[in-house]
Amino acid sequence: MLYAEQQCCYGGITALGSGSSGNAYVLHCPCGNYLLDAGFSRKELCRRMDLCNIDPESIRGVFISHEHTDHVKGCRVFCDAYQIPAYVSGETADYLYRRKLLPEMVVEFIPNCRFMLPGMNVMPFQIPHDALDPVGFTFTFDNDCRIAVATDLGCMEKHIAQELYNADILVLEANYDLKMLLESDRKNSLKHRIMGRSGHLDNRTTAESLSRLLGPRTRSLLLAHISSECNDRGLLGGLIAGELDALARQDIVWRLLEQDAPDVGCYAL
Questions:
Q1: Are 89 and 108 in contact (CB under 8 A)?
Q2: Number of C-alpha atoms within 13 angstroms, CB side, residue 188?
Q3: pLDDT value at position 265?
Q4: Other CB atoms within 10 A of residue 89 CB
Q5: Is residue 104 classed as helix, strand or coil in its secondary structure?
Q6: Please, is 172 exposed, middle or buried when counting C-beta atoms within 10 Å of its C-beta (0-12, 13-18, 19+)?
Q7: CA neighbor of 68 nearest in space, from 113, 127, 122
Q8: Is the pLDDT of residue 130 over 50?
Q9: Inter-CA distances, 48 with 42, 96, 222, 263, Å
Q10: What pLDDT shows up at residue 269?
Q11: Across the beta sheet with 135-141, what order do the strands follow?
């Protein structure tokens, strides 16, 4: 197909899909596009980009948050096909290399240490999750637009809240409803893992965190990694809407991301 020219003067993000079966986002920077996680096959990544009118050849690199399959499934093949690097922590890179999942081009970063790319400042910050070296990201562009992404984390620690605060666009996990998880048929060991400090954020914790995260610049909120088995989108939506009303933040544009379909894209004003 013919792709629309990608001209994003400010910054934005398109969720290609988010959930336990695959996670991937296209980060739209003033200097070009990047993938954040690649949890679908190369073919599926390209199909979803096509639906969003994004040219796969416009992707300049792939940022990896951690080594779980729903975040790295298509990383090696996609990167090698388009001859672009994966940006990954050293410990995660070692793991992927041992399992032949690491692409040819790799740029290793150190968690909690900022690094520069053309047109933007990248901050990979450590998050609590049952992975080797998991990170969230903030991306600050030369025009001061900032996008913050944190999924797959078991609790909202102080340093995480500080990194996420006042981003123009915030992508945040709301994985499960506690009552639904407890009443599910999942094994108790899995329930405890999900509820633990290295598991996932539940709806209420996410909602209650918003007062610490939404700053005067924040205009967009995307709720991510929503469980298809242990969550209810209606309940979650009501909880988020109620919290935003209580905070008098009706100016916030918010959406619940889908597993099976890409989002329409979210851009800073």
A1: yes
A2: 0
A3: 82
A4: 22
A5: coil
A6: buried
A7: 127
A8: yes
A9: 10, 24, 18, 10
A10: 52
A11: 115-117, 120-126, 135-141, 146-150, 169-173, 220-224, 253-256
* Nearest residue to 95 via CA among 106, 84, 81, 83: 106
Single out the residue of 142, 267, 149, 264 nearest to residue 213, CA to CA.
149
* Contact (Cβ atoms closer than 8 angstroms) between residue 149 and residue 122: no
Here the tokens at position 36 are 């954040």
Q: Does domain 12-257 have CATH number 3.60.15.10?
A: yes
Mean of per-residue pLDDT scores for the chain: 95
Specify the pTM: 0.95
Model confidence pLDDT, tens digit, residues 31-41: 889 999 999 99
Residue 266 φ/ψ, nearest 5 degrees: -135, 125
- 168/3 Cα distance (integer angstroms): 27
- Checking if the pLDDT of 4 tops 50, the result is no
Reported as half-sphere exposure (CB side, CA atoms, 13 A), residue 227 has a value of: 22
Which residues on adjacent β-strands are paired with residue 154?
A: none
Residue 7: its pLDDT value, please? 44
